[in-house]
Amino acid sequence: MITQDDINLMMSHINSYKRKKLNDRSPISVFSFLYGTDILQKLAVEDIPSNEIILLPTLPDIITSREKSKSTALGFSVIVRMIISIW
Prior knowledge:
Layout: H1 4-16, H2 27-35, H3 37-42, H4 59-65, H5 74-86
Helix pairs in contact: 1-5
């Protein structure tokens, strides 16, 4: 079963990936520049170092073996993460 912590980690990996469209910055870094880091901390979003980003279907297996972080509410945080990843 996928938990909110799993979703947080997956979205952190997706949104830590640098994009040409954002001048080789990640959506997380652009979001934190525009809105600050407080919101990202409340949403349990973390910036993953580029050499540790995993964008493969095996990420859920890696997630289950990783220590779980603090859980957040599903509704609002998932919507914001989806907006960030689309952005």
